Structure formats: structure tokens, C-alpha cells
Amino acid sequence: MRFLSLFCILLFTFGLMPAHARDVAGGKDHPLVGRYEEAVMTLYKTRDYEEQRLLVKPIRSADMRAAAGKRLSPANTLAIAGKAYRIRYEGPAGRSALEVARNFQADMKAKGFQILFECRGKDCSDGGGSELYFALHDESPMGTGDIHSSPDTQVYTALKLTRPEGDVYASVYVIDFAKKPEVLVDVIETQPMEEDKIVFVDAAEMERQIAANGRVSLYGILFDFDKATIKPESKPTLDEIAKFLTSSPDIKVVVAGHTDAKGGFDYNVDLSKRRAEAVVAALAASGISAGRMKPFGAGMAAPVATNDSEPGRTKNRRVELVKALEF
Question: Where in the sequence is the signal peptide annotated (predicted)?
Fold first, then answer.
């Protein structure tokens, strides 16, 4: 009887605890987004720098086919990079997903956000409402959101806040599940990536490393997010490659593109090959014979560091020159 009384006291006391006291350890509301009153935080993830795709159009079957099955593609998203947050809330019981979503929208608009896109129910995709769930659950670099699928009740909102210190993008996904709302919040605070973390490799160092190791890793060739378009700031490294190949006219090289482990295997192999082809084309345009270069896409198959951290993934995203005897 005493045990039962103690159990009842603990149960009563826990029931009176404020929602914040039951939050996941280390979790914090994002100050520009907040939470619905009496909701409990069950997931909190953050990374200092991440690249993500923000859905701003419905998911279409034709776009998925063109993007090798990916639901989030250049056709329906904005590519955004910066400090990233992924936060999940539950409750309170008795509130609908639509009511919670409308409260988030009103509060964030009052803070200066503009709504970029909103969809409800099965209007979020022509392939069935669950496509939105799979997109948010399976294709985020922040990992799964521990959310459920409820196509009939889902409400999704993408928003943007413009500010001098860097724009802020957010998405709010709300569903009804087990008679209470679930909320998944993603926030990206755009900001410049920390640079000068990779040592610049000049032509002489390329020659030295290839003589010693048969290959050299290059981090100075940068591409637009999820594309094979070479960024202008890659020119110094491309110039050094051309200088090296010009001074070593008998050398043939495999130009190998490498990605991190985010995304599907086949997709990354294709992306890395297209990037390698872009490098070969750029070098050929500068006067290097295309016959001396062979583009190759390794995808995620040859990491040089862990893919479980952003510093590791940064090391894995690279272009390598590998000495070849013949093609």
C-alpha cells in the first residue's frame, strides 16, 4: 500500500511538471521559432555547418524520376547552407495539427518571416501524401526526425526571414498522431563556412605527392551544392593542375571525384563522375589534352575520414589526381 501511494504521488508530481522540464536533455527552443504551448521536446540536433534542401514546391513523380528517385531535388527545393537545427515536439493532447500549424505561421510572420510554400494533406505530392514524410524522414542530412506519417492531417510550411546578418530558413511539419500533434522543425541560419581549413596544394606539391604516393587529394575545387557546376573560386587550383600537367607532359591522370556518404550510393557515384567530367572539361579548355585525363566517379566508396561528422565529411568531398600508366 505504501508503494502504491508513493507511485501515485510520483505520477501526480510528474503530471504537474511543466512541459519544458520533460524535454530531451540539452534541447533548446530555437529563439526565432519557439514551440506551441505545453508541447514537449523529444529530439534536438544541431550542426555548425550543413547543406540542406528546403522543399518549396509539391513533390512530383516526374521530378523524382529525373532525380534518380530523390524526393527533394533541384526542381522543388532551395539549396541552403549554414548552421542547422532539427527539433521535434509532441503534444499537447487535444490540439489539431492544423491549429498548431496556424499558430506557428502567425507567430513567425509576426517575427518577420514570409511563407515560401505551404501544403496540406495529399496536396503535398502527386504520388501520395506519404512522399512528404519520406522526404523529411529519409533525405535530410540531419538524420531521421523520429516522426510518423499521417497524410490526411499533415501541414507543411516553408518560411524565410531576411536579415542583415544572414537569412534564416525554416520548415514546420505538423501531423496528428495518437490523438496529439507531432511537430518537426528544421532551421538553417545562413552563414559563411569557416574557410582556410584545407592547405592549398600548388603544382610543385602535386608533383611531389604523385611521385611519392601515385595520387594527390585536392580540396580547392568547389562545386555548387548538389551540382557539377565548378565555382569561380576553384580557378587557383585548376591553374595549378594545368601548370603541373604542362610541366610533366608524359603523365596521364585519372581525375577522380569523391563525395561524402549523404544521399544514395548510385546518386553520389553519378554526381562524382559528373564533377570529374567538369574538371576534365575545364582543364581541356585551358590547353591540356583531354586524352591525358580520364574522369572517374568514386562516389562515397573511398573515404579518407569518418562520415559521421562534418569535419570528416568535408575531407571526403574532394577531387583526386591519380597517376595512370595507360587508359
Answer: 1-21
Residues 267, 172 within the same domain: no
One domain, residues 173 and 238: no
Q: Model's pTM, two decimal places? A: 0.60
Task: Return phi, psi of residue 118, to 5°.
Answer: -145, 140
Please work out, in degrees rounded to the nearest 5, the angle formed at the alpha carbon of residue 239 by the alpha carbons of 191 and 262: 40
| The pLDDT value given to residue 164 | 82
| H-helix or E-strand spanning residue 211 | helix 203-213
Domain of residue 87 covers 18-190
Beta bridge partners of 218: 319
d(Cα 131, Cα 69) in Å, to the nearest integer? 11
Cell output for 27: 534541447
**Domain boundary, last residue among 156, 190, 224:** 190
Reply yes or no on whether the pLDDT at 143 is more than 90: no
SS3 53: strand
Q: Are 107 and 31 in contact (CB under 8 A)?
A: no
Q: Are residues 182 and 250 in the same domain?
A: no
Rounded CA-CA distance 174/164 in Å is: 30
Residue type, 5: S
Q: Is the pLDDT of residue 247 over 70?
A: yes
Q: How far from the centroid of its chain's Cα atoms is residue 193's Cα?
A: 14
Residue-wise DSSP of 131-181:
HHHHHHHHS-TT--------TTT-EEEEEEE--TT--EEEEEEEEEETTEE
Mean residue pLDDT of the chain comes to: 88
Contact 161, 111 (CB under 8 A): yes
- pLDDT category at 130 given cuts 50, 70, 90 is confident
Q: What is the pLDDT of residues 192-208, one digit of tens each?
A: 555 555 567 899 999 99
Give the sign of the dihedral formed by CA 37, CA 40, CA 43, CA 44.
Answer: positive
The DSSP H or E segment spanning 215 is strand 215-218
Based on the fold, state whether residues 176 and 243 are members of the same structural domain.
no
Peptide bond preceding 92: is omega within 30 degrees of 0, i.e. cis?
yes
